[in-house]
Amino acid sequence: MKFIDLPAQYKNLRKEINSALFQTLKEGDFILGKCVKTLEERIADLVETKFAVGLNSGTDALFLSLKALGIGRGDEVITTPFSFISTAEVIVTTGAKPVFVDINPETYNIDVNKIKKAITKKTKAILPVHLYGQMADMSAIMKIARKYRLFVIEDAAQAIGASQKIKNQKSKFKIRMAGSIGIAGCFSFFPTKNLGAFGDAGMITTDSEKLAEKLKMLRNHGSKKKYYHEFLGVSSRLDEIQAGIILAKLPHLKKWNRKRQEIASFYDKNLRGVGDIIAPSIVKNNVHIYHQYTIRTKYRDALIGYLKNKNILTAIHYPIPLHLQPALKYLGYKKGDFPKAEKAAKEVLSLPLYPELSPQSQKFIIKTIKKFFEENEPRK
Length: 380
Known about the structure:
380 residues, Aspartate Aminotransferase, domain 1, three-stranded antiparallel beta sheet
């Protein structure tokens, strides 16, 4: 059983996707064409922001957001150590320094109660990650950011369609979409995401017209007019073919996210009381869209092997916290600095979860996990 079955999704949408591909090939408008423009408009509508800027990856969305905001050498950006490498990589690439804060062990998102202690005179931004499809505590983060005059860039790569009821400055609650709260929201359309392309693709959402215009120039070599370059940028244009594919999939996103929630609910119900498993926790006011369904168990490694022997593939998101990655050794962090993130890295396990996962497969996964704990119960 696959961890995610991308061919099954294509099979269900073959007609729409093929039509999008052939239309682009027929028109020959491959760079920043009408598909990119239309997708930008529709993603902005979905996220409920004024603007969206298409890029060639979620990593570039993070990097160019920081760059456009002037973050660079000598600056510090506060973020989580429990994420994919790109979260820290982009900070380093600008010349700035990532400053890590431990996680909330229930959500695996940044512990907002620890952010203030990490702020220095060099701090310019907070980069929260909405991990696994559930948003970080944005009410608390924005309150801190306003007090210390910091930018907030949301890493929403795993959270398209997620939402949260947050307090505004007048203490009134409002439902806000992931990617609509900070100065910039960064999305990935990597093939395995809830809304995936057939290759790399990304997007930045923002309410700032000034930022949106700068991002459009940065993605295109610092140019607004061909061969006239106001500053140095990069080549990070969202591919027209990928934009067409995403557009074909976009109308199905809400239905797919609901299906993910249904499967997650089935897992929750049937894994309750099984061994030492801790199921995902949904924080009050959050709508979780389950990019991953990630359980926690001290017997993680043994369970992985057992499931694999039954042809059930799983994944670990993530086995090594960022502060312990060899590439970031120069930052001077050591084992024990962020114990909650380190403990999570030893225990988390993502189970298969995608809209096309059949009820029979879901039941087999549950049955197999239960059997593992029945057979291993005496050894606890």
